[in-house]
Structures are given as structure tokens and as C-alpha cells.
Amino acid sequence: MTDHADLLDSLRGRLIVSCQAYPGDPLRSPEHMAAMAASVARAPVAGIRAEGVDDLRAIRTVTTLPLIGLWKDGDGDVYITPTARHARAVAETGVDIVAVDATGRPRPDGGRLSDVFAAVHGSGRLVMADVSTVEEGVRAADLGADLVSTTLSGYTPYSRRNEGPDLELVAELAGWLSVPVTAEGRIQSPDQARQAMAAGAWSVVVGTAITAPAAIAERFAGALTSVLDTGGHCG
Ligand SMILES: CC(=O)N[C@H](C=O)[C@@H](O)[C@H](O)[C@H](O)COP(=O)(O)O
């Protein structure tokens, strides 16, 4: 377990970058995501989060940074590493931590969350429980999650839908849990990342704001459009 404690320690107070391309994006390939991860790894980041067994295998060849893996599959409500089978496949790619949907919603195979956690632990990896509420986080920790992440806040019909990160959930979870809490989801700026740490996060995961050029360009383009809309154009 010392290795696992060292791994968690290495993430403390630091940034994890999620390298995932949206469906349809030209960057959506294992080669591109591996290059993205290698590029990000030139910065002092603590770890990489990524999706899909092919991407994870490719990323594992380009960096020795701690790797958090998941497999998004199916079109049901629970799509982040939904079953024990998915969890084992992700673990086999060589990741250090497997991220799992740990909401209370029914899983596509009717399986139990504890079975998915057992599959991860049976493979010698740590579990990151992706949750949307404090109740889900408490349950996940009770079931043995090694870290709890706010990933799914705003993505379940019953959770808060903030435009930015759910810092309230970060603070609540940090107050309730003895396992590390990761702030994840809609963190758009270094300032918000700092606020998440101040709210009690162990680590901060940022994806779109760093690794999705289309979304970043859209924000900039949108900002210019709104200047025109408000009469700021002087031509
Ligand atoms: C809800 C869901 O499926 N979240 C996913 C989980 O891995 C990813 O699509 C997000 O990009 C990741 O959580 C990082 O968040 P953001 O990209 O907002 O920084």
C-alpha cells in the first residue's frame, strides 16, 4: 500500500490534465491523444486523465506520469467505466487509477458499484469515484473508493448545474471524507483551479480548458462576437 500512498501524495496540491477529444473531433485518435499527453507532460503536471483503452495504451508509451483511465461506453446514463468488465480492461492498459461512475444510478449490466470497485482493486489499481453529489461521494468512500472526484456534478438530472466548477461540492466532500477529493468539471481558469484547492481539493483535474482547441477557440470567438453585439466594433 506504500506505493499507493506515494501515488496519492504525488498528486497532492497539483494539476491533473484530462486529455480527451470529443466524438467527431479531428484530434480523436490514440496518436493525437498521446501527443497531447506528451505535450502537457512538458509542464509540471502531476498526472494525466484519459479515456478509452487504445488512447490509454498509447499514452502509457509516452509518459510515466500517473495515469487515470476510464472507458466511456454505451448511450445509457452510466457511461464512465460502467461495469466490472470495463474496469478490468482499463486496468490492463497500465493505468494507475481507474475512474468509475459512482452515482447511484442503475448500471447497464445491472451490476453493483462494489463489484466494479472490486474489479479495480483486484487488478491492483486505485479507484477514483466520479460523483455528482455529496451523498454519492460518501457512499463511494464507504465502499472503498481511494479518491472521490466531482466529475459528474451538473451531469446528473438531480445535481447542481453551475456554469463553472461546483466548488460547493468540493468543500462539502472535503469536509465529509477522509479520502482525497478531486475537483473536476468546468474548471476554466488558473484562478478557478486555485479556488478549488482553497475549497479543500487534494488535486484539480482540468480537461477542456487545456486540451480541447475547438472549445477554447469557441470561447475566444464568442467573446469577439459579443463585442460586436454590444456595439464595440469601430469599423
Ligand atoms: C461529464 C464527463 O463525462 N466528464 C468527462 C470525464 O472524464 C470528461 O468529458 C471531462 O472532460 C473531464 O471530466 C474534465 O472536465 P472538463 O473538460 O470540464 O475540464
Topology (SSEs and partners):
Layout: H1 2-11, E1 14-19, H2 30-40, E2 47-51, H3 53-62, E3 67-70, H4 84-91, E4 97-101, H5 113-122, E5 126-130, H6 134-142, E6 147-149, H7 167-176, E7 181-184, H8 190-198, E8 203-206, H9 208-211, H10 213-229
Parallel strand pairs: 1-2, 1-8, 2-3, 3-4, 4-5, 5-6, 6-7, 7-8
Write structural notes for this entry:
The protein has helices at 2-11, 30-40, 53-62, 84-91, 113-122, 134-142, 167-176, 190-198, 208-211, 213-229; strands at residues 14-19, 47-51, 67-70, 97-101, 126-130, 147-149, 181-184, 203-206. By secondary structure, the protein is an alpha/beta fold. α2 (30-40) packs across α3 (53-62) and α4 packs parallel to α5 (113-122). Bound molecules: N-acetylmannosamine-6-phosphate (LRY). The site of N-acetylmannosamine-6-phosphate has 15 residues, from β8 and α9.
Relevant terms:
single chain, 235 residues, alpha/beta, TIM Barrel, 8-stranded parallel β-barrel, 8 strands, binds N-acetylmannosamine-6-phosphate
